[in-house]
Amino acid sequence: MSNQFLDQITQRRTIYAIGKNAAHTPEHLTDLIQTAIKQSPSSFNSQSSRAVILFNGESEKFWGLVADKLKSYAKDEESAAKTTAKMASFAAGVGTVLFFEDMDVVKGLQEQFPSYAENFPVWAEHSTAIAQFAVWTALHTEGLGASLQHYNPIVDAEVHAEWDIPANWKLRAQLVFGSVEGEAKAKTYMDDAARFKVFK
């Protein structure tokens, strides 16, 4: 089956080995990321997804904050060194997109549509996931590698303070990206029969 969109999402992979060897300007990538998020669907067209886009030194600062926070969780020097090296590999990239959900939007929808109140937090998670996937794939189409990380909520307070983030924005994920400096690991797939049911 030949389909350009399916080809792109099939090729999009988790790339851990990233660098700064990219010709893309921050302006171009900002437009790409913002457009991908704006065009991502959300329940009731809530547009609850928010993003903070960090380039170069600002991205390095974020991963430095994470590294400092994780030191308190390290059991020994060896695990601390491994964690520091991992954060350094993320800081080696071009940038990081911090994905948030605006909880004021979610609460507003809960109040406006009480019958669906318990669903709106779940649907907000759907919205951010779609936005994350859209941005990730868009960056892939530009020849960039990325990996999705989740160091929330341990750095939430530091992030909100450092970049003056509104209190109602809830950090959900971090997408770090850069030039591709190494291949993705082989991907395996479970049997279709265990995953899908088709009725005709």
From TrEMBL:
GO CC annotations, alphabetized: cytoplasm
Chief location bin: cytoplasm
Domain of life the protein comes from: Bacteria
Record keywords, A-Z: Cytoplasm, Oxidoreductase
GO molecular function: oxidoreductase activity
Localization: Cytoplasm
Protein name (database record): Nitroreductase domain-containing protein
Biological source species: Acinetobacter bouvetii DSM 14964 = CIP 107468
